[in-house]
Design a protein that fits this description.
single chain; Jelly Rolls; Arc Repressor Mutant, subunit A; 2 domains; 6-stranded antiparallel sheet; 4-stranded antiparallel sheet; 10 helices; about 20% strand; globular
């Protein structure tokens, strides 16, 4: 039986805050999907983003906050040298609840009512790496309380299991260990997170591969492929092509000059 269980502790809404600065280069910067919902806040100028595989770009206005459900594909960001983009990474368990609180704009992107004071406080939170302060600001902007007691802890446990394995676990291992049916797990996971468990695993695994390579750029891509749970290089290249529309070597060269 799929039942809801209350939680005693509250998990921070914001997991990470990053700022992406504009660079003088021809190719747009690429933001890899990492299973977290996001709030995009353009600073100083308007910014254009485009989901990989999409032909229609989305214009983000300066100072406005845009909430985005966990993404299935990478995003290309066109930044001028004087532009800057704040990206607030949201715990995926809050994704659906936040979306219900907001007004839809387009393509699963929602307008977030951020005041000037909110934006200034978020910048301070980023400078101090304070995700708890940022979480309070997001709740204040929503004018609601995002309490975790409303969520099924089976979803929380499945997310934890996938993250601990860096995406190398299988969906069968997840629903078997949690004693739920495959259909129930997939139905509720997709409803709460916006992704299927299989998609969540694939995104977690490609991030593990990218981060592992960046920690030691000289290592063999072939050896790392197997260490990160891919069957072979063709499997890895297929995932890179889908998520980022490029090969691993071209991705690292264009984004990190490796």
């Amino acid at each position: 039986m799929y039942t809801q269980i209350g939680l005693k502790e509250k998990i921070a809404i914001v997991e990470e805050i990053i700022q992406i600065a504009g660079e003088d280069k021809k190719r747009p910067q690429v933001l890899v999907p990492n299973n977290m919902a996001e709030v995009f806040i353009p600073l100083r100028t308007d910014i254009t983003i485009k989901s990989i595989g999409s032909v229609r770009p989305l214009l983000l206005r300066e100072g406005v906050g845009y909430f985005c459900m966990p993404r299935r594909r990478g995003v290309e960001i066109a930044l001028e040298p004087n532009a800057s983009l704040m990206v607030i990474k949201i715990n995926p368990i809050y994704a659906n609840k936040m979306a219900r609180e907001l007004k839809e704009v387009s393509s699963s992107v929602f307008a977030l009512n951020l005041s000037l004071s909110h934006r200034k406080e978020l910048i301070k939170a980023w400078e101090g790496s304070n995700t708890y302060v940022a979480s309070d600001i997001v709740e204040e902007a929503l004018e609601t309380s995002l309490d975790l007691y409303e969520y099924n802890d089976t979803i929380l446990n499945s997310i934890e299991q996938i993250r601990e394995s860096f995406g190398r676990t299988s969906v069968k291992e997840i629903y078997s260990s949690l004693n739920v049916s495959k259909s129930k797990l997939e139905q509720h996971f997709n409803r709460e997170v916006g992704l299927t468990p299989k998609e969540f695993c694939k995104i977690e695994k490609i991030n593990f591969f990218i981060n592992s390579y960046l920690e030691e750029p000289g290592q063999s891509l072939t050896e790392l492929t197997y260490q990160c749970g891919y069957y072979d290089q063709s499997h890895l290249i297929k995932d890179f092509k889908y998520f980022l529309n490029t090969s691993p070597k071209r991705f690292f060269h264009s984004q990190f000059a490796i």
